[in-house]
């Protein structure tokens, strides 16, 4: 059991418990905080896979940007304390049953089918850890290439989307 | 040795927790938090399939990057809508939202 496995187990338990706490807690500020923990754990998972740039983007955009936006809007809109999940018992039970059955079916398929038998495992002795082809230089080259393997068009489309999003945010949230 | 199944189990738990939250929450902001959980689990799947199945490729990696950007845009617009809703109804519960229909 090397350090990578120990780190993975810690991250796995952390992510699973935090994501369950996100949907089960009563207070919405706490739900946002647990979601922050889930996102940070996911960033840790990316770092563990050797995708350091993706992990950094996850921390910056999700944990630094989106969660701050959420907490800001929670504080802005929590005028009177409202019940976060006021449901009939039947609806809660039906939702829980749907989720548990879905998860069970997924796990059954995953382990019955042996889809990934010949797939390499992370941290195997034959494979150098953290040495992937996805370095920053190759990411930048692929992201701005216009050829067959390039991603210039989605890159520009995302920039247009963000511009449209700024305009829409201003237009919707302004005072009438 | 971290098998691909272990990471898929984590993302599956995250996905179904998000589905449960989406179905049971009454506040639109909490529903949006559940949607973020589901998006995040899809991101993990893209990254891990790229890492384990096609280590030379970039596809899953860049899909994750673009998904993060789109999630940021989506939550910004949704939060703008919710702030507008709060101005109109002083509440962001889903019960009031039938009044949004024109």
Model description:
- The complex is a heterodimer of chains A (176) and B (102).
- Chain A is mainly α.
- Chain A folds into two domains: 1-78, Up-down Bundle (Four Helix Bundle (Hemerythrin (Met), subunit A)); 131-176.
- Chain A has helices spanning 3-24, 28-49, 52-77, 89-113, 136-143, 152-173.
- The longest helix of chain A is centred in the middle third of the chain and has 26 residues, at 52-77.
- The radius of gyration of chain A is 21 Å and the shape is globular.
- The model of chain A has no long low-confidence stretch (mean pLDDT 84).
- With 102 residues, chain B is mainly α.
- Helix content of chain B is 76%, strand content 0%.
- The termini of chain B are far apart.
- The model of chain B has no long low-confidence stretch (mean pLDDT 87).
- At the A-B interface, helix 1, helix 2, helix 3, helix 4 and helix 5 of A face helix 1, helix 2 and helix 3 of B.
In short:
The complex is a heterodimer of chains A (176) and B (102). By secondary structure, chain A is mostly helical. Chain A is 71% helix and 0% strand.
């Amino acid at each position: 059991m090397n350090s990578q496995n120990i780190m993975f187990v810690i991250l796995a338990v952390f992510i699973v418990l935090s994501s369950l706490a996100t949907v089960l807690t009563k207070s919405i500020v706490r739900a946002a905080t647990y979601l922050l923990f889930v996102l940070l754990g996911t960033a840790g998972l990316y770092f563990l896979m050797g995708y350091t740039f993706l992990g950094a983007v996850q921390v910056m955009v999700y944990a630094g940007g989106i969660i701050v936006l959420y907490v800001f809007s929670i504080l802005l809109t929590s005028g009177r304390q409202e019940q976060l999940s006021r449901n009939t018992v039947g609806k809660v039970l039906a939702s829980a049953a749907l989720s548990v059955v879905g998860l069970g079916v997924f796990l059954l398929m995953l382990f019955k089918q042996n889809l990934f038998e010949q797939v390499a495992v992370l941290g195997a002795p034959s494979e150098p850890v953290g040495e992937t082809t996805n370095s920053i230089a190759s990411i930048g080259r692929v992201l701005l290439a216009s050829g067959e393997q390039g991603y210039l068009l989605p890159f520009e489309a995302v920039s247009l989307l963000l511009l449209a999003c700024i305009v829409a945010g201003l237009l919707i949230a302004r005072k009438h | 040795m971290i098998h691909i199944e272990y990471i898929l189990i984590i993302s599956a738990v995250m996905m179904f927790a998000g589905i449960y939250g989406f179905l049971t929450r009454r506040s639109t902001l909490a529903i949006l938090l559940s949607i973020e959980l589901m998006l995040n689990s899809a991101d993990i799947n893209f990254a891990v399939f790229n890492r384990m199945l096609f280590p030379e490729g970039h596809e899953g990696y860049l899909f994750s990057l673009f998904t993060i950007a789109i999630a940021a845009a989506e939550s910004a617009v949704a939060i703008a809508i919710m702030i507008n809703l709060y101005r109109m109804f002083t509440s962001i519960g889903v019960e009031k939202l039938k009044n949004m229909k024109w």
